[in-house]
Amino acid sequence: MQTISPDTVERVWRQRIEISPEEIEPFAIEMEGEQPGLLAYLLAAGEENFSDDEQALMLYMGLNIWEMMRQGVSGPKAVPVEAVDVMESRNITDFAVFQGQSAQDIETGLSKFIEKHTQPYVLGYAINMLAQEEETGENIQEENKARIFFYLKTMVDCLDQHQ
After folding, report:
1. DSSP for 57-99?
2. Each residue's pLDDT tens digit, 69-110
């Protein structure tokens, strides 16, 4: 579980910032070959509750996170579907502490949560991207930002455990 450096996160983000939705398909095909369980998880997550924009954003961010994690010292091994289910259950328990809290308390709690995580820079990327969507006027519902972060954190945890 080696921490991905901020330089790696920044490099991947800069390489992929100008990619259009049409150009993302080759990356998804590559991920399907290496991480079929995680790609299936990303595609199925939020399928019923997310708009097309929200689903596309989560896939884009997930592909970038996968690339960031791949560029670590030893790229992650394939994550079995069962491991994704176990990690998602753990995250449901971890995120339950935020129910009923104010937005400020949630923000403070998430900051502490991220600081203690083995991949703070990768998770920081996810938080920053979701915050930027607010500035660009994308049609991302506030409650779905939290869901997107949850799914991406589950993905990061799985990749981190399979390094």
Report:
1. HHHHHHHHHHHHHHTSSSPPPPPPHHHHHHHHHHHHHHHGGGT
2. 998 767 788 999 999 999 999 999 988 888 887 778 778 888
Is residue 52 helix, strand or coil?
Answer: helix
Structure tokens at 111: 């900051």
In the numeric block, the tokens 């939705």 are attached to 21
3-state SS, residue 4: coil
Task: Report yes or no on whether pTM surpasses 0.85.
Answer: yes
Token reading at 135: 């500035």
pLDDT digits (tens, 9 = 90+) for 103-146: 787 788 888 889 999 999 999 999 998 888 655 556 788 888 88
- From 83, 108, 95, select the one nearest 161 (Cα to Cα): 83
Please tell me the distance from the alpha carbon of residue 110 to that of residue 49, in angstroms, as a whole number: 23
Q: How many residues does the chain have?
A: 163
Written as six digits, the tokens of 149 are 């972060």
- Other Cβ atoms within 10 Å of 44 Cβ, number: 10
How many Cβ atoms sit within 10 Å of the Cβ of residue 142? Answer: 9
User: Any idea where the domains of the chain sit in the sequence?
Assistant: 6-161
